[in-house]
């Protein structure tokens, strides 16, 4: 079959024009696809955001519903803590009150003959006792009696010196011992060896 081109030579489209026309058409198609995909993604993200906003609104509504109960629980917890603090203060005062009763009773029961007490002072769990005695033996007996009490621990001699009371020579002494934190707690029994060492150290105390 023979084709005859009757168009003038100058009106025939060149290959370059045809190529650029195809490029333009495909560019339009690609741009259209990009727009469609972009619009689809935008619509999908918008839908997700709307769903999330709905969930957030539901969560806020539920939190608002339980906000009153949470405030009530916090208030009850604060009141409970305040009451517990008051109970602790009362228990500490009660414990210290009974402890001092026990300490004074044991101290009074431990004073032997020929020993007179001037004062007893408690500070930071340590009792300091000051008094007078006629001999080292009486002071040693006093310390031994104290060491055997349930609420007395670590009896130690601090000071001993000679004095005169109404022309009568006496020994002025100062000793200390520890007391437990709780009046119901009892120190562990001491071994005979430790008691023997303490007695020897007291008997060997030098007088000034």
Condensed summary:
Helix content is 58%, strand content 20%. With 208 residues, the protein is an alpha+beta fold.
Characteristic key phrases:
208 residues; alpha+beta; Gyrase A, domain 2; four-stranded antiparallel β-sheet; disordered C terminus
The count of DSSP E runs of length 2 or more, i.e. the number of strands, is: 4
State the end-to-end distance: 150 Å
Strand content: 15-25%
Stretches where pLDDT is under 50 for at least 5 consecutive residues are 183-197, 203-208
Give the oligomeric state of the chains in this entry, treating copies of one chain as homo and distinct chains as hetero: single chain
User: Rough shape?
Assistant: rod-shaped
* Number of contiguous helices: 3
CATH architecture of one domain: 2-Layer Sandwich
The portion of residues assigned to helices is: 55-70%
CATH class of one domain: Alpha Beta
CATH superfamily of one domain: General secretion pathway protein M, EpsM
**What is the fold named in CATH at topology level of one domain?**
Gyrase A, domain 2
Largest sheet: 4 strands, antiparallel
Description:
The protein has 208 residues and is an alpha+beta fold. 58% of the residues lie in helices and 20% in strands. It has a domain at 96-203: General secretion pathway protein M, EpsM (Gyrase A, domain 2, 2-Layer Sandwich), CATH 3.30.1360.100. The chain is built from three helices and four strands. A four-stranded antiparallel sheet has the order 1-2-4-3, with helices on one face. Helix 1 crosses helix 2 and helix 2 (136-147) packs antiparallel against helix 3. The longest helix is centred in the first third of the chain and has 96 residues, at 15-110. The model is unreliable at 183-197 and 203-208 (pLDDT under 50).
